[in-house]
Design a protein that fits this description.
4 copies of one chain form a homotetramer. By secondary structure, chain A is mostly helical. Chain A has a single domain (40-181), classed as Tetracycline Repressor, domain 2 (Orthogonal Bundle). Chain A has 8 helices and no strands. Chain A has helices at residues 2-12, 19-26, 33-36, 40-64, 69-101, 108-130, 140-153, 166-181. Chain D binds a DNA duplex through residues 18-20, 28-36, 39-40. Chains A, B, C, D: GO terms for molecular function: DNA-binding transcription factor activity; transcription cis-regulatory region binding. Chains A, B, C, D: Residues 18-37 bind DNA. Chains A, B, C, D: This is Putative transcriptional regulator TetR family protein. Chains A, B, C, D: It comes from Planotetraspora phitsanulokensis.
DNA sequence: TATGAATGAGCATTCATTCAT
DNA sequence: AATGAATGAATGCTCATTCAT
């Protein structure tokens, strides 16, 4: 049922989705949802929490594996697309509503996550530059933004049953980006 | 006043923005807006139309100038960031609300524009592959999506008074992407 | 369980009390109450009926004992405070919800009881005036109201485990009403 | 319009009154009320605040006039009935909803007022006992409660266009309480 | 041009009630 | 006897929109 809510929020937008629409999609009446959830807000909350927890588990495993900058970068990209594969609707919601939701104390963890996310990517990129594996003439702050935007926005068009698998998309993205930022 | 509306819609989201908030920002009362606009919908409509018209004028000029694939690509990227500079709020709105608005016949032009947009970029990329200037082992459909997403989402964080100018951001983006997709 | 319902209704108000709260207090789940009661309404109904039946039994015994006006008055006051002692929550509910409930045909007996109540007290007071034991310059209709209100509203603050017993409160009240608070 | 709301709340009970009913009584539609009030809560809030402010102005004037205990008592009773005459619906609401509303921080002033009210009456009664004008064998705490309940509950049945004026009711009440109903 | 009072449809949420288990 | 999932009507409230002034 959480998955149902996530899908509806993702496709219609959180604010524009009515509780009745979620209930319809879940095969019940409006009021019945409230037996399972406290509020509309707590639905997104749970959707986003579950997604972020899972995403960080994957990221933390990568960080813990002690790869060099370039392979860490590749692994993070790959994990990102795999996370999109597992949590597509949640990622779409995160992408679209995060900024607005974060103004609510209840969703402070969104800002925390974002901060940690930025620190993680910048650290990999800066390490790569220092190790001489990434070009030094690029603004890593910009590269971070470009990468972040492209990867997560992919959730908007990715279909798990589409022509390209998450791993293949990741491979192509890395091919595009890596051969650009790697010194030749 | 249109600019005011665009800014409010961009920062709060179209659906979440109340007409009163737009009126406040414009220094008048809720009902007064209706002397200037038919409806909330016609406000976004005008915001988006103006933006798209201007964007296509710029793109058409590039296409008309008869450059080769690689320089066309560079010019389109540059024009995109310049368009963001001129129409940042409109681009944000376009990015966030387009999909939802497009279900309304009134906004059919959004879908048309998107289709034309896709055709234009694919044509440049495919021509580049054919001319041997872009790598042949990449999926141009994917490259198109990656590029589109990254460029337009930049409107979410770009500040015209920020550290980096639109042209500098464009330059960095091209450096990243081009050296990746260009044959070596 | 009826006592539980009465207490909850008395403390939170009938309209503001949810069936779930009554169930909670009775140590069961919301739906389970309906094995014991037809409806929320039938709970108050039974609470009030039991209370009124008991109260009238006490009053009728007083009336039947053939005392003079002054002693009948004293006895009725005493019985009223004893009834409060036995049915405090029910009296509170009666006091607060009676007027509203009485619009419902099912609770017509509330209006009947009130009418009979008024007749009984007026008869005692008027008899006392006629017998010369109560002052003739008083409006017995008013005295009735003052007495009724004070006695029954005492249910709002009376505690059976408090400093003063029901009989002591009755004694003080009679002292005040019968002889006044001014020293003579 | 505030008066309309007060009347509806008083007759149907705050919790049982719907915003639509208030609007009906005010000759408008449900949503229209919100142009004038923030919420249902702020309606009662204003009704009660206005009433309490006015009541305390009257009481304070009595206290300031430096009468002896007995005349202060009489004046306070008289002012109470006059306040009921001016603010009948508000007094009814205060009487019925006070306890429940007071759990809300917004209505903390209800508890404050009640505390001050109690202190004022007890001070008058105790002073009377000390001055020897009121009987010493009475529990002033009880007398306070009896008086408070009777006076304010009168708002439930008092009609400004009824047979008896507020001052006449006050006179009768004082006669009863001060000197008793028994002939001497 | 602008105001402000009102509209009315729509929303999230509550809650008495039902019912299969 | 009791559970727990569901119902659906009703509620407080929001907001785009209208319109007389």
């Amino acid at each position: 049922m959480l998955a149902t809510a996530a899908e509806v929020f993702a496709s219609r937008g959180y604010a524009s989705t009515t509780v009745r629409e979620v209930a319809d999609a879940a095969g019940m009446l409006g009021g019945s949802l409230y037996y399972h959830f406290d509020s509309k807000e707590s639905m997104v909350d749970e959707v986003l929490s579950v997604f972020l927890t899972d995403m960080w588990a994957a990221y933390d495993a990568v960080i813990a594996s002690g790869l060099d900058a370039r392979d860490t970068f590749r692994a993070l990209i790959a994990e990102s697309f795999r996370t999109i594969d597992r949590h597509r609707p949640a990622v779409v919601i995160y992408q679209n509503e995060s900024k607005h939701l974060a103004t609510n104390p209840r969703f402070a963890y969104l800002t925390d996550s974002q901060r940690r996310f930025r620190a993680m990517w910048l650290s990999v990129l800066d390490r790569g530059v220092m190790e001489g594996v990434f070009r030094a003439d690029l603004d890593t702050g910009l590269i971070y933004r470009f990468t972040r935007d492209t990867v997560w926005l992919a959730a908007s068009w990715y279909r798990s049953d589409g022509r390209l698998s998450a791993d293949e998309i990741a491979r192509q993205y890395m091919a595009m980006v890596l051969d650009g930022i790697v010194t030749t």
